[in-house]
Specification:
Elements: E1 5-6, E2 29-30, H1 31-42, H2 45-55, E3 78-79, H3 111-120, H4 125-136, E4 152-154, H5 157-172, E5 184-188, H6 215-222, E6 226-231, H7 265-272, E7 278-283, H8 289-294, E8 298-301, E9 321-326, H9 329-339, H10 349-352, E10 369-372, H11 374-377, H12 382-399, E11 402-405, H13 411-428, H14 440-448, H15 455-478, E12 489-494, H16 507-512, E13 514-515, H17 517-523, H18 528-533, E14 537-544, E15 551-557, H19 563-577, H20 593-599
Parallel strand pairs: 5-6, 5-7, 10-11, 10-12
Antiparallel strand pairs: 1-3, 2-13, 4-6, 7-9, 8-9, 8-14, 12-15, 14-15
Helix pairs in contact: 1-14, 4-5, 4-20, 9-19, 12-19, 13-15
């Protein structure tokens, strides 16, 4: 039986357009120059118009092909529930993780390590949080005080201790809730959590009068996970390095001269530094995959009903989605399958319409076709391309995958349309009177790109989204699995074309921020597409840049509703490429939480 969808795009091959990649020439502003420049531009309509024209974000408007496509304002495609196979597990069953610490010198702890130690009584959840709190708490003035507190914006010690005490009691009574009970987890500041602020990395209040926990986080808490705090992020999620002068910038644990990536850099940092095995990111334009690439952990971007439930976590709702990040595929799968449970219809009708992901476990064969858009992939830097090619070769030779050449039209234009959409929607969620409280870089973006696009620009961007979705639907239908359960095609690229993002200006950049639109655009070249068209994607660490020691990632994007096939692809990658390696530097960039507990 062929898989059925709601709002599936019309499969239609796009125009045979020759792709022209052109570098975006934008000035780099840093230090005091950035602050002065942002202020002047904020009050100068002439300069705003000049910069807007130079950025050419709306250059796609002239594409004749757009006349043949209707605008697609929401990329959500809903897989309809399928009759279960006889050999499929019941919906209530989620396989417990089995992956544990692979090496005491190079590996990451997983939920399995915590769960087994709790069951044995060797340590307790309370022991773990008491070891973590001094490391991650900020001072009473809001400034970083603990060794790793720059990665967190807020930690409610009272709530953390309360959750740990309840979990410890369950283990003592022999009644743990499951494999996630007592496991420390971090959540990006973009997501609502009861009792916590929500500022999106800014000085503004984005709680919107709501003090409830988003559905996805609630499902983790119901499984016993301990939310140890809300993680740092790029201010309102507008860039991809996670530079945040408001609260400090978490430095890449693999090389402190590099960024973690953003906007979910705090979540990537928390895992890479060994503080938690699982964290939540949010994707308003690549934010889930970039930090997991630069921090060397797994990341899954899911569009499973936005897995949020009310309240919607993003101020750019048509592009905002969530996804877990983890140090093992087992933990990634567990986190996703719990958080993506459909919300009640009265809470979120979009989420409620999706099938329960647990009912899809084991129902889909591993995808075996890797689609390569070679003109696109060639854009990656040499060290990234080397590790990418080696990983694809391993998939082919050791797991029986095949590669096919594919073409995707209007990729540069699509990236501009994606950026315009995000910036316009972010600007629509910000009062003009609040711009003065933003950091210079964010204020600059809002003054120029966020407010100068027209309604015509926005509609044209959504037409281009519709064109790309139709073209991808044609590709996915062309490579259907033999049993009709979905597409066999995964579109595979590097996660980022860059081998990390260096903090070129040193402390000056961290203090004042930086505006580097050219590097931002480069960093987003591969990840923008999955976000723009609403397809799920997974990041897999495939090695390190030999110069910077920063991790390099591979990204696979699948058909709508293909999260389980993406997890299968990730499991294959973990087997053939090995486990993620924790930071090897001797500067305390990684903390052995369990060893710390045992020594107390």
């Amino acid at each position: 039986m062929s898989k059925q969808f709601l709002n599936y795009p019309e499969p239609r091959k796009g125009p045979d357009a020759q792709t022209q990649f052109e570098a975006i020439a934008l000035p780099v502003l840093r230090g005091a120059t950035l602050g002065i420049g942002a202020t002047i531009i904020h009050w100068s309509g002439f300069l705003q118009n000049l910069l807007w024209r130079n950025a050419e974000l709306n250059s796609f408007r002239s594409l004749p092909a757009l006349a043949d496509y209707a605008p697609r304002y929401d990329p959500t495609v809903t897989p309809l529930p399928q009759p279960p196979r006889a050999d499929s597990p019941e919906a209530k069953e989620i396989p417990a993780p089995v992956k544990k610490l692979s090496s005491e010198t190079t590996g990451y702890y997983t939920s399995v390590d915590y769960h087994k130690l709790y069951l044995s009584g060797e340590i307790t959840p309370t022991d773990v949080v008491e070891a973590l709190l001094p490391l991650i708490q900020r001072g009473s003035d809001g400034k970083p005080s603990g060794k790793f507190s720059v990665g967190f914006l807020e930690t409610r010690a009272d709530l953390v201790r309360e959750a740990a005490a309840e979990s410890t009691k369950r283990y003592k009574e022999g009644k743990p809730l499951g494999p996630l009970d007592g496991v420390p987890i971090a959540v990006k500041d973009e997501v609502h959590v009861k009792g916590y602020k929500r500022c999106l990395g800014s000085k503004l209040d984005f709680k919107l009068g709501i003090d409830e926990t988003s559905w996805c986080v609630r499902k983790w808490e119901e499984a016993g996970a301990i939310i140890i705090g809300k993680t740092n992020m790029h201010e309102i999620g507008v860039d991809t390095n996670n530079n945040n002068p408001n609260y400090g910038t978490p430095l890449n644990p693999h090389n402190p001269n590099y960024y973690c990536g953003g906007s979910s850099g705090g979540s990537g940092y928390a895992i890479a530094a060994g503080l938690v095995p699982i964290a939540l990111g949010a994707d308003g334009g690549g934010s889930i995959r970039i930090p997991s690439s630069f921090c060397g952990v797994y990341g899954l971007k899911t569009t499973h009903g936005r897995v949020s439930g009310a309240p919607t976590p993003s101020i750019a709702p048509s592009v905002g989605v969530l996804g877990p990040m983890a140090a093992s595929v087992d933990d990634l799968a567990l986190a996703y399958r719990l958080m993506a449970a459909p919300a009640p219809a009265e809470m979120d009708s979009t989420s409620a319409s999706f099938p329960d992901p647990r009912s899809e476990i084991g129902t889909k064969p591993r995808p075996k076709t890797i689609g390569l858009c070679r003109s696109w992939i060639e854009r990656a830097e040499p060290s990234v391309r080397e590790r990418f090619d080696a990983a694809v070769k391993e998939y082919v030779e050791r797991k029986g995958y095949r590669t096919v050449d594919i073409e995707i039209p209007y990729l540069p234009e699509g990236q501009r349309a994606h950026a315009l959409t995000i910036l316009a929607e972010l600007a629509s969620g910000l009062e003009g009177s609040n711009h003065g409280t933003l950091t210079p870089h964010t204020r600059l973006l809002m003054s120029v790109s966020g407010t100068h696009s027209t309604g015509t620009d926005y509609v044209a961007a959504q037409k281009l989204r519709g064109l790309l979705m139709s073209h991808l639907a044609d590709l996915f239908r062309k490579y259907q699995s033999e049993d009709g359960s979905g597409s066999d095609l995964l579109i595979v690229t590097p996660t980022s074309p860059l081998p990390g993002w260096e903090i070129a200006g040193g402390q000056r950049d961290l203090t004042h921020g930086i505006s580097d639109g050219s590097t931002t655009a480069r960093n987003m070249e591969f990840v923008f597409l999955a976000n723009f068209v609403g397809c799920p994607a997974v990041n897999i660490p495939v090695g390190f840049d030999p110069k910077s020691s920063v991790p390099i990632g591979l990204m696979a994007m699948g058909e709508w509703g293909s999260e389980e096939t993406l997890l299968g692809f990730a499991y294959d990658g973990e087997e053939i490429l090995g486990d993620p390696k924790r930071p090897s530097r001797e500067d305390g960039a990684w903390v052995d939480v369990i060893d710390l507990v045992k020594k107390k």
